[in-house]
């Protein structure tokens, strides 16, 4: 790890929040070192920190690293001068996401499309263009309306010409537009969602192998799991799920613990994330119930009620093995939704 003399300024609290000054650099060659990164990125500003992540045991590069600048504007300058070629290879630079967000597999996926929730009738597309135009060049802005009433359905999509604009918006997360709070997330295509879900399955499989044979099917976490979930309807969700609306699948905040630096980083760069589920443990529903059962330790057999895993057609955690249900969502095969309903 390379630390510069400017770290004294950071200790004195004179720097902007690190989340706005830090970059993730993926796709590094095995020969790239801390000094190589420092030499390359120092051309755009003052580096406060620079590190290539390595395996603790073998000390071999894990294929990614991080650099921290002294100002957000220096990150902007670096991102504006892509592509970046280090040691003869085009690398994958992105704005680093906070630790709590990095455990989500979608953090490793680049998207040029932004999902905006909290849209009101008072909002117009011009308002969104004016607000989000500060972060990048907008190609398309659409407020999704009900086909029958013409009223907004509560969400919108913004398409930029560069994924970095979406990353900048997501770092802020909540935006005040016309005095109303709107939250943002990356809008992923069906193919990208399938990739996220596959990554989650692989993470859980690796974790299960490291802990021994799984106890059963089903998912951990507070909430029941469903085949479909609303967009982002999974802060307490469980397990990966089948294809569905935005936000289906994937572990929630209390879901799989990640490997790499700060959680989920390094999934595609040679990292070896650990497993780990929510409050229920591997293969269990609810608060530690038996495998593929719902409830608080409900007996084996037909139905298990309570907060745990549910049945195919039940509501809030009713009956059966295997399939489970979200609040108002549709049942499915041991999928992962959250508290949301059917996706868009």
Automatic annotation (TrEMBL):
Superkingdom of this protein's organism: Eukaryota
GO MF: mRNA 3'-UTR binding
Name the record gives this protein: RRM domain-containing protein
Task: Report if keyword Protease is assigned.
Answer: no
Gene3D superfamilies cross-referenced by the UniProt entry: 3.30.70.330
- Keyword Transmembrane helix assigned to the entry: answer is no
Compositional bias, Gly residues, is annotated for 215-250
* Segments forming domain RRM: 21-104, 112-189
Renumbered to this chain, region (Disordered) spans 197-250, 276-344
Q: Quote the PROSITE patterns the UniProt record gives.
A: RRM
Task: Give GO cellular component annotations, separated by semicolons.
Answer: catalytic step 2 spliceosome; chromosomal region
Family annotation (InterPro entries): Nucleotide-bd_a/b_plait_sf, RBD_domain_sf, RRM_dom
Biological process (GO) annotations held by this record are: mRNA splicing, via spliceosome
Q: Where is the composition biased (Basic and acidic residues)?
A: 197-208
**Alphabetical keyword list:** Repeat, RNA-binding
